[in-house]
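Bench notes, afternoon.
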Amino acid sequence: MKKLSIIGSTGSIGRTTLDVVSHHKNEFKVLALAAKENISLLEKQARIFRPRVIAVWDEEKAQLLRKKLSALRIKVVNGEEGLREVARITQCNQVVFALSGMKGLRPLLDAIRAKKDIAIANKEPLVIAGPLIKDAIRRSNVKFIPIDSEHSAIFQCLAGSKREYVKKIIITASGGPFIDYPDHLLRTVTIEKALRHPRWKMGKKITIDSATMMNKGLEVIEAMNLYDIDLKRIEILIHRESIIHSLVEYIDGSVIAQLSTTDMCFPIVYALTYPERLQNNFSRLDLAKIKTLSFKKPDYKKFPCIRLAYQAGACGGTMPAVLNAANEVAVEQFLNKKIAFHSIATIIQSVMKKHKIIQTPTIDTIITVDRWAREEAEKLC
């Protein structure tokens, strides 16, 4: 039985992971849960799965949970130290990271150093601190399995192959809600339209990233760090049907793709059971019913966030952290109706231009740069 710690248990990935666990009780046991603020759902999860420890960010909410769960003898911790305790809990085999933003960075490094296998859904750690994470993985010799559908697909397509045989990685994208919008109409985009993703139901931040296509830009940097491949050999391809989740082209001309229906259960179960595969009842792919799969290259002029991500990845050092922080602030301000949709990329570009790159940053340097970039973006907003 694999023993799990799930950080970000109340988000969509966390909830789906727990749903998988509930259907495979003989395979998995939950030792710890962590959430940012949704304590009502976290309380329900704690009552169902009976973990040893749960963590929530806010101290007052932690106190409330302690009272509600006192009869169950579940330890309740809070803040960054609480997340770090959940990440390195004794007897845990694998930590699932589904907590967005910077808050998961130190806990992730703690889990790796504690020799826990990692299943990771959030892009930010590998984007902003890829070299530090890779070094920690090498030192601890742990499994590091991506959960997001595109990187799970790449991981599977690379299985059993030498990296020197890879010619390029192709990351697919649905294109979001505005792939067919004329450029001039992007200036009039509303929050409601931007949140109307054609394929996936996700949180607000990642849905806006899909609308700007920054999510693909972040995935490019993530792929560069995760698979040790040159940025120039990573491409993005618009694939509206979201059936092929990514592809790998090899030097002999062969192209391997991973296909499935649009269900996050597939990459989650793969990450939890790797290198084994678990029998399940998920929806099966019927290509005869789908009939047609379409592809086209993205328009970098229409979606400048992609170009900015490639630039940040090429610069390296602290620039990806600046890109990520400025984007998070700009997206939040758009959702708060403080800036227009097209201003998101403008603000990110302005903050990047102001930044002086530090090429080999420590984790403290990355956190300092992240704070600086957020302040600069807020000033511009």
